[in-house]
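Section 5.1 Outputs to date
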Amino acid sequence: MAKILLTGFPGFLGSELVRRILARKGKPSIVCLVQPKFATLARKRLAEIEAEFEAAGAGIHGRLTLATGDITQVGLDLESPAALAREVVEIFHLAAVYDLSVRRETALKINLAGTRNVLDFAARCAKLRRLQYVSTCYVSGRYAGIFREDDLVRGQEFNNFYEETKYLAEIEVRERMKAGMPASIYRPAVVTGDSRTGETQKYDGPYYVIRWLLKQPTVAVLPVPGDPKRTRINLVPRDFVIDSIAALSEWKGAAGQCYQLADPDPPTIDDAITLMGKATGRVIVRVPMPLTVAKSAIEYVPGVYQLLGIPASAVDYFIHPTFYDTHHADRDLAALGIRCPKLADYMPHLVEFMRAHPRHRVGRHGLDRKDESSWPPLRGTRSPRFRIRRRRGRSPAGE
């Protein structure tokens, strides 16, 4: 029986991806790497998944197990890494910290060093068929223009340490690929809830704006930085990301490829706001506002964040200058019968779910919840003050 190692359980994408892997024809077994402090939640999620398969008449019979560990430690802090390495044929690495306001040392430890440790473990797996690495579209940083799937080092600058360290981690993955490690890279854009049900685990990203609109009467006021008619926002539903990774991970032709799991024709900020207004039943009065004024007001004016519920770290993405080319993803997913749903088709479901579950967890700093992790968002009242240095390759001293 093939054995697969997965990091990022019981997170937003990881939990659903586990279900898809268990449904494969070859009936593989999955070992989920879980930090001790998340063991209780992981066991609960595991029991739910076992019950679902049992109810469908397809019991998994012990094919899903948990292993206590930590990606920030050498050998993943496993009790017997060598023994597991002899059995593993495939690795899904989703675990990361996705807090836009994360401190650099924390992001380096989890996103960069953690990925190195997973890569080192993968190198010990003699039977490894492929490493499935989940990156992010935002390795682009603030690159102005078209960012392609083969692009990475483009002299870009970054909005935060999350972007920077995911960029550095992808450099590490690509270097191992050049050295012969079989791998595929997946770069989701901003991940929303399910396109059919609206289901999500946490409200952040576009939900900040939806929640603000729902707080207001029929005529709602919305501060809008930048030029909303020129700037685009790239949103993708969870089911599209899961369907894509699940299908491509089984297809041999995806080995060695990088896929931007993004909307090939994303709406402008203005169009997205219009769709939110229609779905919430609000007439929106847009109030133009410079980016610096918007962020400063949220961070330093008492009561503004509590009123809006939109963190300053998320405002940068209202003026994001990058357009994500999805040529590889469009070509290969079309052959597999998968396409990205249009935001206009599923925005009503996102709003309906939010109305029905108003007390769902609200993210403080997150952008794309693809986290999957064993790594919770770090809390704080303000974004750290920093300037991200321009990166043209590996960081100094192998940071």
